[in-house]
Protein backbone atom coordinates (compact mmCIF):
# COMPACT_ATOMS: atom_id res chain seq x y z
CA UNK A 1 0.00 0.00 0.00
CA UNK A 2 2.89 2.37 0.66
CA UNK A 3 3.64 2.23 -3.06
CA UNK A 4 0.23 3.68 -3.85
CA UNK A 5 -0.69 5.95 -0.99
CA UNK A 6 0.73 8.73 1.07
CA UNK A 7 1.06 7.75 4.71
CA UNK A 8 1.41 9.70 7.93
CA UNK A 9 5.12 9.20 8.57
CA UNK A 10 6.57 10.49 11.84
CA UNK A 11 10.30 11.28 12.11
CA UNK A 12 12.46 8.30 13.04
CA UNK A 13 14.10 10.22 15.86
CA UNK A 14 12.63 12.45 18.56
CA UNK A 15 15.42 14.88 17.69
CA UNK A 16 13.13 16.07 14.91
CA UNK A 17 10.30 16.96 17.33
CA UNK A 18 10.26 20.10 19.43
CA UNK A 19 8.89 20.11 22.98
CA UNK A 20 5.44 21.18 21.85
CA UNK A 21 5.22 18.32 19.33
CA UNK A 22 6.33 15.81 21.97
CA UNK A 23 3.64 17.04 24.35
CA UNK A 24 1.03 16.63 21.64
CA UNK A 25 2.08 13.03 21.02
CA UNK A 26 1.95 12.03 24.65
CA UNK A 27 -1.38 13.68 25.42
CA UNK A 28 -4.58 11.91 24.41
CA UNK A 29 -6.18 13.71 21.47
CA UNK A 30 -9.95 13.52 21.42
CA UNK A 31 -12.66 14.69 19.05
CA UNK A 32 -16.35 15.11 19.80
CA UNK A 33 -18.77 14.53 16.93
CA UNK A 34 -21.98 16.47 17.46
CA UNK A 35 -24.82 16.15 14.93
CA UNK A 36 -27.28 19.06 14.92
CA UNK A 37 -29.47 16.98 12.58
CA UNK A 38 -29.81 13.23 12.23
CA UNK A 39 -26.80 11.44 10.84
CA UNK A 40 -27.37 10.29 7.22
CA UNK A 41 -27.83 6.56 6.74
CA UNK A 42 -25.98 6.61 3.45
CA UNK A 43 -23.66 9.07 1.70
CA UNK A 44 -23.12 8.89 -2.05
CA UNK A 45 -20.18 11.32 -2.11
CA UNK A 46 -18.20 12.61 0.87
CA UNK A 47 -15.78 15.46 0.13
CA UNK A 48 -13.09 16.13 2.73
CA UNK A 49 -11.43 19.55 2.35
CA UNK A 50 -8.21 20.33 4.23
CA UNK A 51 -5.77 23.29 4.61
CA UNK A 52 -6.42 27.03 4.85
CA UNK A 53 -6.32 27.54 1.07
CA UNK A 54 -8.91 24.88 0.31
CA UNK A 55 -11.06 26.11 3.21
CA UNK A 56 -10.97 29.66 1.85
CA UNK A 57 -12.10 28.45 -1.59
CA UNK A 58 -14.86 26.29 -0.14
CA UNK A 59 -16.12 29.10 2.11
CA UNK A 60 -16.31 31.55 -0.79
CA UNK A 61 -17.42 29.36 -3.69
CA UNK A 62 -19.00 26.12 -2.49
CA UNK A 63 -20.94 26.50 0.75
CA UNK A 64 -23.21 29.34 -0.38
CA UNK A 65 -26.35 28.98 1.78
CA UNK A 66 -25.55 25.52 3.10
CA UNK A 67 -25.68 25.13 6.88
CA UNK A 68 -23.50 22.79 8.88
CA UNK A 69 -25.24 19.67 10.17
CA UNK A 70 -22.35 18.35 12.26
CA UNK A 71 -19.47 19.75 14.30
CA UNK A 72 -16.28 17.84 15.05
CA UNK A 73 -14.64 19.57 18.00
CA UNK A 74 -10.93 19.19 18.65
CA UNK A 75 -10.05 19.09 22.34
CA UNK A 76 -8.54 22.40 23.42
CA UNK A 77 -9.61 24.26 20.26
CA UNK A 78 -12.20 27.02 20.06
CA UNK A 79 -12.95 26.17 16.44
CA UNK A 80 -14.34 22.93 15.02
CA UNK A 81 -14.44 21.01 11.78
CA UNK A 82 -17.88 20.94 10.20
CA UNK A 83 -19.92 18.76 7.87
CA UNK A 84 -22.27 20.37 5.36
CA UNK A 85 -24.98 18.75 3.24
CA UNK A 86 -24.55 19.89 -0.35
CA UNK A 87 -27.41 17.86 -1.82
CA UNK A 88 -29.59 14.90 -0.89
CA UNK A 89 -26.68 12.47 -1.05
CA UNK A 90 -23.51 14.62 -1.13
CA UNK A 91 -21.74 15.97 1.95
CA UNK A 92 -18.64 18.05 2.59
CA UNK A 93 -16.39 17.84 5.65
CA UNK A 94 -14.43 21.08 6.12
CA UNK A 95 -11.45 20.31 8.34
CA UNK A 96 -10.38 22.90 10.89
CA UNK A 97 -6.82 24.01 9.95
CA UNK A 98 -5.83 23.57 13.61
CA UNK A 99 -6.13 19.79 13.19
CA UNK A 100 -2.42 19.18 12.61
CA UNK A 101 -0.41 16.17 11.51
CA UNK A 102 -0.17 14.62 14.97
CA UNK A 103 -3.97 14.66 15.33
CA UNK A 104 -4.85 13.43 11.83
CA UNK A 105 -5.08 9.75 12.79
CA UNK A 106 -7.38 10.49 15.71
CA UNK A 107 -9.55 12.66 13.47
CA UNK A 108 -9.95 9.85 10.93
CA UNK A 109 -10.82 7.41 13.71
CA UNK A 110 -13.48 9.80 15.05
CA UNK A 111 -15.19 10.12 11.64
CA UNK A 112 -14.77 6.46 10.65
CA UNK A 113 -18.53 5.77 11.09
CA UNK A 114 -19.14 8.57 8.56
CA UNK A 115 -16.50 7.29 6.17
CA UNK A 116 -17.94 3.77 6.32
CA UNK A 117 -21.31 5.05 5.09
CA UNK A 118 -19.77 6.71 2.02
CA UNK A 119 -19.96 5.22 -1.44
CA UNK A 120 -17.18 7.50 -2.69
CA UNK A 121 -14.64 9.62 -0.78
CA UNK A 122 -12.95 12.65 -2.33
CA UNK A 123 -10.18 14.14 -0.16
CA UNK A 124 -8.61 17.48 -1.13
CA UNK A 125 -5.45 19.04 0.24
CA UNK A 126 -2.89 21.66 -0.81
CA UNK A 127 0.91 21.76 -0.84
CA UNK A 128 3.58 24.21 -1.96
CA UNK A 129 5.28 23.15 -5.20
CA UNK A 130 8.60 22.94 -3.31
CA UNK A 131 7.27 19.73 -1.72
CA UNK A 132 7.02 17.97 -5.09
CA UNK A 133 9.95 15.55 -5.13
CA UNK A 134 10.34 14.82 -8.82
CA UNK A 135 11.65 16.40 -11.99
CA UNK A 136 8.29 17.10 -13.62
CA UNK A 137 8.02 20.01 -16.01
CA UNK A 138 5.23 22.02 -14.35
CA UNK A 139 5.05 25.51 -15.86
CA UNK A 140 1.55 26.17 -14.47
CA UNK A 141 1.07 28.45 -11.46
CA UNK A 142 -0.98 25.64 -9.95
CA UNK A 143 -1.69 22.05 -10.84
CA UNK A 144 -3.39 18.99 -9.40
CA UNK A 145 -2.03 15.52 -8.80
CA UNK A 146 -4.05 12.59 -7.45
CA UNK A 147 -4.02 9.14 -5.91
CA UNK A 148 -6.96 6.74 -6.02
CA UNK A 149 -7.96 3.50 -4.35
CA UNK A 150 -8.25 0.33 -6.34
CA UNK A 151 -12.06 0.53 -6.09
CA UNK A 152 -12.28 4.08 -7.50
CA UNK A 153 -14.09 4.53 -10.85
CA UNK A 154 -11.71 4.58 -13.82
CA UNK A 155 -12.89 8.03 -14.92
CA UNK A 156 -12.14 9.41 -11.47
CA UNK A 157 -8.64 7.92 -11.51
CA UNK A 158 -7.89 9.73 -14.77
CA UNK A 159 -9.27 13.12 -13.75
CA UNK A 160 -5.77 14.38 -12.81
CA UNK A 161 -2.25 13.01 -13.41
CA UNK A 162 -1.02 10.45 -10.91
CA UNK A 163 1.21 11.69 -8.09
CA UNK A 164 4.57 10.11 -8.80
CA UNK A 165 6.91 8.38 -6.38
CA UNK A 166 8.63 9.14 -4.00
CA UNK A 167 6.20 11.90 -3.00
CA UNK A 168 4.54 11.73 0.41
CA UNK A 169 1.27 13.37 1.45
CA UNK A 170 0.31 13.60 5.11
CA UNK A 171 -2.67 14.76 7.13
CA UNK A 172 -6.39 14.11 7.26
CA UNK A 173 -6.78 13.87 3.48
CA UNK A 174 -4.09 11.17 3.23
CA UNK A 175 -5.61 9.35 6.20
CA UNK A 176 -9.04 9.36 4.56
CA UNK A 177 -7.64 7.78 1.40
CA UNK A 178 -5.76 5.14 3.40
CA UNK A 179 -9.00 4.33 5.26
CA UNK A 180 -10.85 4.00 1.93
CA UNK A 181 -8.22 1.63 0.54
CA UNK A 182 -8.09 -0.62 3.60
CA UNK A 183 -11.90 -0.87 3.67
CA UNK A 184 -12.21 -1.38 -0.12
CA UNK A 185 -14.10 1.88 -0.65
CA UNK A 186 -13.82 4.03 -3.79
CA UNK A 187 -11.75 7.10 -3.01
CA UNK A 188 -9.47 9.73 -4.53
CA UNK A 189 -6.99 12.13 -2.96
CA UNK A 190 -6.52 15.35 -4.97
CA UNK A 191 -3.47 17.48 -4.13
CA UNK A 192 -3.34 21.08 -5.34
CA UNK A 193 0.24 22.31 -5.78
CA UNK A 194 0.82 26.07 -5.70
CA UNK A 195 3.88 28.12 -6.67
CA UNK A 196 2.69 31.19 -4.76
CA UNK A 197 1.02 31.92 -1.46
CA UNK A 198 -2.45 32.95 -2.58
CA UNK A 199 -5.22 31.76 -4.85
CA UNK A 200 -6.22 33.87 -7.83
CA UNK A 201 -8.44 33.39 -10.87
CA UNK A 202 -5.75 31.34 -12.61
CA UNK A 203 -4.37 29.19 -9.80
CA UNK A 204 -7.87 28.23 -8.66
CA UNK A 205 -8.77 26.54 -11.96
CA UNK A 206 -7.84 22.95 -10.90
CA UNK A 207 -10.14 23.27 -7.87
CA UNK A 208 -12.96 24.58 -10.04
CA UNK A 209 -12.48 21.67 -12.44
CA UNK A 210 -12.67 19.15 -9.59
CA UNK A 211 -15.87 20.55 -8.06
CA UNK A 212 -17.44 20.87 -11.53
CA UNK A 213 -16.68 17.17 -12.10
CA UNK A 214 -18.43 16.44 -8.80
CA UNK A 215 -21.49 18.43 -9.99
CA UNK A 216 -21.14 20.95 -7.15
CA UNK A 217 -22.47 24.44 -8.04
CA UNK A 218 -19.87 27.18 -7.60
CA UNK A 219 -20.03 30.90 -6.93
CA UNK A 220 -17.56 33.23 -8.72
CA UNK A 221 -14.14 33.19 -7.10
CA UNK A 222 -12.44 36.24 -5.61
CA UNK A 223 -8.71 36.15 -4.83
CA UNK A 224 -7.65 35.15 -1.34
CA UNK A 225 -5.65 37.26 1.01
CA UNK A 226 -2.12 36.08 1.80
CA UNK A 227 -2.43 32.76 3.66
CA UNK A 228 0.12 30.53 5.34
CA UNK A 229 1.21 27.54 3.28
CA UNK A 230 3.58 25.05 4.82
CA UNK A 231 6.60 24.57 2.58
CA UNK A 232 7.15 21.10 3.91
CA UNK A 233 8.59 18.71 6.47
CA UNK A 234 11.63 18.02 4.35
CA UNK A 235 13.85 15.02 4.89
CA UNK A 236 17.15 15.74 6.65
UniProtKB/TrEMBL annotation:
GO terms for biological process: proteasome core complex assembly. InterPro entries: Proteasome_assmbl_chp_1 (IPR016565). One of its GO terms (molecular function) is proteasome binding. It comes from the Eukaryota. Keywords: Chaperone. The keyword rRNA-binding does not apply. One of its GO terms (cellular component) is endoplasmic reticulum. Belongs to the PSMG1 family. This is Proteasome assembly chaperone 1. The gene is PSMG1.
